[in-house]
Write a sequence for this structure.
């Protein structure tokens, strides 16, 4: 066997022949310093629609990114044909760091997490007050995912003409979540969209909710020029709606008023990926009280320091109850 000394020259290194006859492989990746900046608007079977300045570009992910996937809301760097003309294809060569991430798993036993949207400022959780009935456990799970991912939650209650919002407002009042209540008449007249838009101004807002609650109808009212998908109906037997949105889609509000991201209706929201220790960050009045908690405290055990913190008057007991209810939602089924 040939051995090399400390002062080997490059000429001494034997290069393996390249059977394909193309350029040799290298671990040195181009920096693409001249790449254009863009935002991912939607993803469909490996093709990503991106906004570059005022043009819509169809792109694919560069092989050098490996298994890293770009999702709606991602800020990306693109090279290639950026004209946006028909039958052109650009290449995404870099995915910028994310400021927030909304993630979910199919269920609580699924180890594979799915990133729903990146870089959103807030999460609008849309729920009908009737037809179909509200599902507080699903709302709780969406809240946990929002807090864990760095998004501010917003509660949007629809169909108030069928049922009052009092019970839900009482359940979530201690969380200080911004909310808006709308009716079908307000939605038809355009008043609902105007009131909701006041809470979206200048932000990127992801809309989530199970099928049939009026999520896509509301999004279409906020962005009336987008009519590529029709709204569905609620199944009278199951109480569940037909899926009308098949992939997440970012849509611009009028007058540069922000973005809405319409997401497919969910039937479950798994939290297998959630680190419970991050949820406490959404409770700034309780977080200082965790200093004396035992290591790896779940904040719902006999030695938790939060009980003493609340007893001393530093925070409202209702806030501690709300925190523990949200933390417990990871360990119980949505129908419980």
């Amino acid at each position: 066997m040939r051995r090399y000394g400390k002062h080997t020259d490059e000429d001494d290194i034997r290069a393996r022949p390249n059977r394909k006859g193309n350029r040799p492989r290298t671990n040195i990746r181009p920096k693409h310093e001249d790449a254009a900046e863009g935002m991912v608007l939607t993803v469909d079977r490996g093709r990503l629609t991106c906004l570059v300045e005022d043009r819509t570009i169809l792109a694919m992910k560069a092989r050098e990114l490996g298994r890293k996937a770009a999702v709606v809301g991602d800020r990306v760097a693109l090279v290639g044909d950026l004209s946006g003309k028909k039958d052109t294809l650009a290449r995404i060569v870099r995915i910028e760091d994310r400021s927030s991430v909304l993630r979910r798993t199919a269920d609580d036993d699924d180890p594979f997490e799915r990133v729903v949207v990146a870089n959103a400022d807030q999460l609008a959780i849309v729920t009908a007050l009737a037809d179909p009935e509200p599902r507080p456990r699903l709302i709780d799970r969406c809240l946990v995912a929002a807090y864990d991912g760095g998004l501010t939650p917003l509660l949007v209650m629809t169909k108030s003409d069928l049922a009052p919002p009092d019970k839900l407002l009482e359940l979530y009042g201690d969380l200080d979540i911004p909310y808006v209540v709308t009716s079908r008449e307000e939605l038809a007249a355009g008043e609902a969209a105007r009131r909701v838009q006041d809470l979206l101004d200048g932000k990127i807002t992801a809309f989530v909710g199970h099928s049939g609650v009026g999520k896509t109808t509301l999004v279409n009212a906020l962005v009336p020029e987008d009519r590529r998908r029709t709204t569905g109906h609620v199944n009278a037997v199951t109480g569940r709606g037909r899926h009308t949105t098949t992939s997440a889609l970012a849509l611009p509000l009028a007058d540069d008023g922000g973005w809405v991201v319409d997401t497919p209706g969910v039937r479950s929201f798994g939290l297998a990926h959630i680190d419970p220790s991050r949820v406490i960050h959404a409770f700034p009045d309780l977080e200082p009280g965790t200093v004396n908690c035992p290591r790896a405290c779940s904040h719902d055990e006999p030695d938790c320091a939060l009980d003493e913190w609340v007893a001393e008057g530093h925070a409202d007991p209702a806030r501690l109850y709300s925190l523990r209810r949200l933390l417990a939602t990871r360990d119980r089924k949505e129908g419980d």
